[in-house]
Amino acid sequence: MLESKIISSNIRAINKRIALLQRNKNKSLDFVLKGAGLMDGKRLRGLLVLLTARACGAKVTGSMVNVAAAIEMLHHATLIHDDIVDDSDVRRGAPSLYSKLGPLMAVLAGDYIFAGAVDMAVNDLDRETLKVFSSIIKDVCEGEIEEVYNKNNADITNRGCLDIIGRKTASLIKGSVACGALAAKCGGKKLMHLKAFGYNAGMAFQIKDDLLDITSKTSKIGKPAGSDIKEGKATLPLVLALNNAPKAEAGRIRKLFRRKKAASSAKKILDFILEYDGIDLAELMAVSYIEDAKHALDQAGLAADKNGAVLYELADYMLLRNY
Fold it and tell me: What is the model's pTM?
């Protein structure tokens, strides 16, 4: 799906803009940025900016590409910081910047790329879009803080788990769609429905990530399988399994987290998730979010537009992807 002509042309435009950040004469920056993997990734969030703008009837301009590239760079900066927080050696199947250069350089690189994203977008954002951009940053940070705060806490509720997903992942995808809509001068109920599409698609995207962490091979997802459990994260499949299991069984799993033994008991916890339908229940929830996302697109009146059709396909991709 990501190989279609509309998709590939937009990805090329985004990549061309991002590549400009790496063109500098500073040896230290050149050294760091070459190891940061800036040119990697699916460009899903940047694509949502451009495809939404096009679906709303606008032609893609250089300003829109700048915003799409800035969204991608903002996302990349959060991934670099994520790897530091998670003590992760691998990102997208390759050594993470953190593992290659250490935490100090990785923090500074993430900050620099974040600053580059703001610099790239600031001249192309009106007041309302700038507010969306700043809200993304705030929400992602809040979600990450909440996730770290709940490390080794298997008592977290469904609602608490979904709130973290909403802030750390769905807010960025929702914001990407909103930036595209606003660039096309789209407002009112149509903007509201498009934001709902982005939010629901983003929720499904992260739930799928949580499922892939449990069910996929390391070679597919580009990081060690089961890494969330080993890091002490109680992701949605586990939380749903805990709620579905007998009280005594759930209590034993929760105790492993409280005693910080999740990493050494990862297989036992993964087997528990399977036994008590955590995977099936999470999949059903992801499907429900995608159905809500598509309904929001219907409400926005984009079913007949060829770019709107690509948004429907992207929604399916978020659910059906295997990496």
Answer: 0.93
